[in-house]
Amino acid sequence: MKAADAASGGAGQGGAGAVRPGATNALGGEPSAYLRQHATNPVHWRPFGDEAFGFAEERDVPVFLSIGYAACHWCHVMAHESFEDQETADFLNANFVAIKVDREERPDVDAVYMAATQAISGEGGWPMSVFLTPDGRAFHAGTYFPPRPMPGRPSFRQVLEAVRDAWLERREGVEQNAESLARGMAESQLAAAVQLTGSPDPVDAGLLSEAVRVLARSEDPDDGGFGTAPKFPPSPVLEFLVRHAAVASETSDAATDMAGRTLAAMARSALFDQLDGGFARYSVTRDWSVPHFEKMLYDNAQLLRAYVHWARLGGDSVFPASEAADVAARTADWMIQALGVAGAGQAEAFASSLDADTVVDGRHHEGASYLWTPAELQDVLGPDDGAAAARLMNVRAGGTVTASASPLHPGCRLDDAGSALWDGIRPRLLAARSGRPQPARDDKVVAGWNGLAVAALAEAGAVLDRPDLVAAAGQAAVYLERVHWQAPGAGGQGAEPGTLVRVSHAGQARGIGGLLEDYAFCVDGLLTLYGVTGAERWYRLAEDILEAACLRFGADGTLVDTAGESSQVFNAQGQRAGLEPFDNATPSGAAAFAGALLSYSALSGSADHRIMAGNILALLPPLATRAPRAAGWLLATAQAALAGPVEAAVVGPAGPVRAALHRAVLLSASPGLVVAVAADAGGPPAGPVPSAVPLLEGRTAAPDGSPQVFLCRGMVCDRPVGTVAELLERLAAGPP
Fold first, then answer.
1. Closest Cα to residue 275, out of 133, 428, 398?
2. How many helices (H) and strands (E) does the chain have?
């Protein structure tokens, strides 16, 4: 079909599909890096919103919704093949209203239409291609469509023509399909409903052990991780396994073994950047040897925490604590160097991702920055060291990603000689690689992911004795407070709660309010930072954000993930607000909220917040045995609840003694341990120092004025201890 014919293809049927005069691509002014990547497409893209759906209703045409993200390789492929093609664009423009969504900015949109896509096509992923009625209900969907038919997959043009024909000739059937799917999604939301009030049952320790046994049945004991290719880092599950390993039980050894094998396999593979640190999104091979090269903040923040916790636990013979600490340090340094961004020239935050592709001579090449041939290694290192490096890092003449090039991949623990060689040549290779074209960075700052980073960097700084990492966590917290948190106005009693904005660009908050996961991750990060630094401003900010979350997402006693940001999303899920209990690339908002509620209740003594956490954990029994791989953070939070969690109040004058006691607490592997640190009263011993943290109320220095630690559970404390040796003995014995 010629371009002119395509342009008129939807203008029949009385001209209902005619394109508005002057309609153009409307993404040029969008702050999202992903949307701006498509701003020069001949497709007349619009951002998601009422204007775009109103335009579809006015024209009486369906919506073509395309969802992806800036670092997505196959999104780039479909853009080049189809969205940059004038003839395809003409057909789209004539017969549809095209909407482009950055899934990282609008996970609420992504989640509901991903569920629809999986229900319709049996598959999910990005780019996601969904066809909607003008009120937002899905009726057809898929993922990547090629420009020409492939076995089992039609071409994109064939799909567009079939959908257009169905819309024009079988509208009643389209409407029935859309309504049926919306009803089904509403019913699934009812099944996952959580009531925040009531009397939850206590956590069953046997349920957690059974989850470990179920996980063991899907573990890959040879290559680490779970399942086969493609293989993703199971970050929430790793957090559960490390916590479970810290408490003696009939399955703690199995949890230790699984966690150690997976952490070791990933660290020694191409998933981990052996030169510069940081983890890629996933591996396309079972043995982690061929990564999908995008690097995401949310992956690295979660994995940083997992490696820090493994080092704190003490490691094992398969994966020593020292090796885990090195991986953690390099990951933290990479996050700061590669993803650190300044907000309006002030406090630093963290960008979302690095692209999977590198643009070389105007063309996208997946992983090009990270690939090596044997000849390239010899060019940089010389014949002998180059050949040795190729053997050490599995770079052979037959490449694993291209015909000749491979990522660096030791695949095993290096011996002393191998480590010495690698330590000597790594800086030279890194310097050479820095001269290559580099992947693009998506500079948007996402509140929740920065909350994950705050928690991970604060704990890494404490465990690795790296004050610079704690400082980086503090800078990100300042940015979240200054840019993303819109504090409530001085309206007195009954004033509206504050709002956490999900995304910022160049130091300016933009777009929708945060989702449940944003609030929960930020609260967790701020409470963790408070426990490490003792700065009560972070406790108070966490308390404010948590209170706002309770009102925003549970005002009627039922927990939801969103607060009605889009009528179209509401329609797509049968006009019922939703809650996703399963982890995805990050912990589910519900699971993260349960963890935040539990930690806050331990510091504040709030029974109401503890009850809310328990009611969310009531989701766990069927998930623990049926789908534990998708419930890792709920399991990790349940493990913390079962442990108490342990509450540690560190009081007394600041100085070396208190610092040693505080550090000993921070090095404890007790699941879910929460830490409160009193302000320094100075001078001779006096009464308790006023504090915003209830756990510190009535806790004073020893009679002689020396520091001490109160170990508590449910705000009930044992006698205080004043030496590190006694503290360690008490921690090993468990909570009072």
1. 428
2. 28, 22
